């Protein structure tokens, strides 16, 4: 079982005779939807809110079978697999060719028991989880419940208990050996494997595990009865054994899963150490490159000052051809003393030739304007 597929039975708290049957993949969330706490609830359940969940039937191999079970539970007299089983129940009747609704928890529970004894559903690894203790107490009082298949389990608890059971059923039994317990053949990738629920020894699904059970007759495909495990000799039913069936993706080369987990753990540690060493090597190389860049001799200011200045060419423009204007006495007095020379602080650094020519022209102009 890889995903939860289940059908549930609801009972109204305002009218105990009102019930509802549905399908869900999350019972806790679905109950909140029916009670209006969150959206996407059924329209038929709006009037009789609030609701309580009585039980859940889960363990279906796929969604299609779960939906078929829901329809058969809602229409027991219409479904061909169930109508012969519920023919003796007086409350299951047809009105104008349609199924009359089955009201109450006890009648729906009786229909459920008859369905679990029917051929298609009695061979499925189904489980019934009760969330109401009063409904669970009615089960031993029903004579039909004594003929239920022995591989079906009935549990009682809250939603947390149901989630725990689902988690345990979805956790596959680990493959503790790389050899089949019956044929002693090696388990290869893509092999379908089952494990004994008692000793956890692996078996090939076909033909090893199938040969342990009595041969089927006629058109019957699913074996009946129980078979003894070739390793521990304890009896196991087919429906219990088939719950943990899966296809191997990797052949188990190690004898124990703990050793395999330890192997992968050590491999991860080695990969981490190697990656750390590579990072240290890369960082040391970067540090060496940076140190080499800083160790190269830089051009000092004195060396830059001793460099020969590039030849400067005079740029002629319209401003040079204009006549020089003389400053008036009032403007010269208000402007204060004029600096006849450029006072440059620090060493002179050669610049672009255009900058040098502009400096020379500015010096010439200040010299011409001086009285």
UniProtKB/TrEMBL annotation:
<comment type="similarity">
    <text>Belongs to the SLX1 family.</text>
</comment>
<dbReference type="InterPro" id="IPR050381">
    <property type="entry name" value="SLX1_endonuclease"/>
</dbReference>
<keyword id="KW-0539">Nucleus</keyword>
<dbReference type="InterPro" id="IPR000305">
    <property type="entry name" value="GIY-YIG_endonuc"/>
</dbReference>
<dbReference type="InterPro" id="IPR027520">
    <property type="entry name" value="Slx1"/>
</dbReference>
<keyword id="KW-0540">Nuclease</keyword>
<keyword id="KW-0255">Endonuclease</keyword>
<dbReference type="GO" id="GO:0004519">
    <property type="term" value="F:endonuclease activity"/>
</dbReference>
<feature type="compositionally biased region" description="Polar residues">
    <location>
        <begin position="292"/>
        <end position="305"/>
    </location>
</feature>
<comment type="subunit">
    <text>Forms a heterodimer with a member of the SLX4 family.</text>
</comment>
<dbReference type="InterPro" id="IPR035901">
    <property type="entry name" value="GIY-YIG_endonuc_sf"/>
</dbReference>
<keyword id="KW-0227">DNA damage</keyword>
<feature type="region of interest" description="Disordered">
    <location>
        <begin position="280"/>
        <end position="371"/>
    </location>
</feature>
<feature type="domain" description="GIY-YIG">
    <location>
        <begin position="3"/>
        <end position="83"/>
    </location>
</feature>
<dbReference type="InterPro" id="IPR013083">
    <property type="entry name" value="Znf_RING/FYVE/PHD"/>
</dbReference>
<keyword id="KW-0378">Hydrolase</keyword>
<keyword id="KW-0233">DNA recombination</keyword>
<keyword id="KW-0234">DNA repair</keyword>
<protein>
    <recommendedName>
        <fullName>Structure-specific endonuclease subunit SLX1 homolog</fullName>
        <ecNumber>3.1.-.-</ecNumber>
    </recommendedName>
</protein>
<comment type="function">
    <text>Catalytic subunit of a heterodimeric structure-specific endonuclease that resolves DNA secondary structures generated during DNA repair and recombination. Has endonuclease activity towards branched DNA substrates, introducing single-strand cuts in duplex DNA close to junctions with ss-DNA.</text>
</comment>
<dbReference type="Pfam" id="PF01541">
    <property type="entry name" value="GIY-YIG"/>
</dbReference>
């Amino acid at each position: 079982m890889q995903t939860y597929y289940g059908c549930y039975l609801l009972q109204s708290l305002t009218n105990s005779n009102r019930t509802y049957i549905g399908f869900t993949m999350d019972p806790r969330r679905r109950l909140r939807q029916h009670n209006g706490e969150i959206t996407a609830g059924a329209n038929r359940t709006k009037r009789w809110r609030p609701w309580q969940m009585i039980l859940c039937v889960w363990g279906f191999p796929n969604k299609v079978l779960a939906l078929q079970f829901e329809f058969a539970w809602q229409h027991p007299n219409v479904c061909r697999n169930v109508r012969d089983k519920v023919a003796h129940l007086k409350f299951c009747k047809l009105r104008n060719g349609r199924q009359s609704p089955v009201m109450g928890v006890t009648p729906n529970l009786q229909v459920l028991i008859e369905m679990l004894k029917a051929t298609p559903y009695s061979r499925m690894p189904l489980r019934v989880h009760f969330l109401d203790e009063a409904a669970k107490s009615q089960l031993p009082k029903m004579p039909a419940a004594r003929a239920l298949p022995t591989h079906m389990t009935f549990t009682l608890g809250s939603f947390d208990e149901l989630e725990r059971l689902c988690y345990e059923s979805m956790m596959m039994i680990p493959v503790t050996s790389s050899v089949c317990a019956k044929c002693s053949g090696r388990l290869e990738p893509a092999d379908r494997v089952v494990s004994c629920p008692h000793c956890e020894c692996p078996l090939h699904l076909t033909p090893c595990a199938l040969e342990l059970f009595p041969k089927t007759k006629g058109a019957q495909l699913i074996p009946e009865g129980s078979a003894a495990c070739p390793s521990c000799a304890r009896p196991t039913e087919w429906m219990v054994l088939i719950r943990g069936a899966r296809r191997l993706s990797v052949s188990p080369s190690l004898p124990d899963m703990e050793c395999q987990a330890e192997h992968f753990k050590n491999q991860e540690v080695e990969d981490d150490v190697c990656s750390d060493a590579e990072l240290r090597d890369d960082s040391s190389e970067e540090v060496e490159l940076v140190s080499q860049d800083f160790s190269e001799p830089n051009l000092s200011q004195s060396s830059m000052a001793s460099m020969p200045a590039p030849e400067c060419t005079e740029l002629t423009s319209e401003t040079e051809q204009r006549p020089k204007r003389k400053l008036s006495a009032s403007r010269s007095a208000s402007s204060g003393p004029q600096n006849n020379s450029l006072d440059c602080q620090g060493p002179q650094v050669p610049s672009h030739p255009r900058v040098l020519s502009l400096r020379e022209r500015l010096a010439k102009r200040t010299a011409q304007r001086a009285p």
